[in-house]
Specification:
The chain has 5 helices and 2 strands; from the N terminus they run E-E-H-H-H-H-H. It is mainly alpha-helical. It has a single domain, classed as Four Helix Bundle (Hemerythrin (Met), subunit A) (Up-down Bundle). It has a two-stranded antiparallel ribbon with strand order 1-2. It is elongated and about 50 Å long.
Length: 120
């Protein structure tokens, strides 16, 4: 149950409590889709300070899942939104985050269902 290429739950599994793991994953699955949606909306609106802050926040959440491709994109988005004059590439990176996150969300939802069955 350590995940796929998109994530790795080994850090969270160190909690040693499947109920706690479920709580963390449930909260992540509940809150993160809206944060990703806001990242896209703020990017489209050119609200770069918000884009940087959201990318930073998402990067932290996804780091605990060891979602390396997403964390890498978010780190780039955060940096570019803060400092680069030509922010045109940010929209493409955000679009990639949206697609990759949706795959991750589906995989984690399946993982959550398996854990629920496992603990009854």
């Amino acid at each position: 149950m350590t995940g796929t290429n998109n994530y790795d739950l080994s850090l969270l599994e160190q909690l040693g409590d499947k109920s706690a793991l479920l709580d963390v994953l449930d909260l992540f699955l509940k809150d993160t889709p809206e944060q990703v949606r806001q990242l896209a909306l703020r990017t489209g609106a050119g609200e770069w300070e918000s884009v940087s802050a959201l990318a930073h926040k998402l990067k932290g959440s996804l780091s605990m899942l060891q979602a390396k491709p997403l964390v890498s994109h978010l780190a780039t988005i955060e940096k570019m939104a803060k400092s680069v004059e030509d922010k045109t590439p940010v929209a493409g990176l955000v679009a990639e985050v949206e697609v990759t996150f949706e795959v991750l969300r589906e995989e984690l939802s399946k993982e959550v269902n398996m854990i629920r069955k496992e603990i009854g």
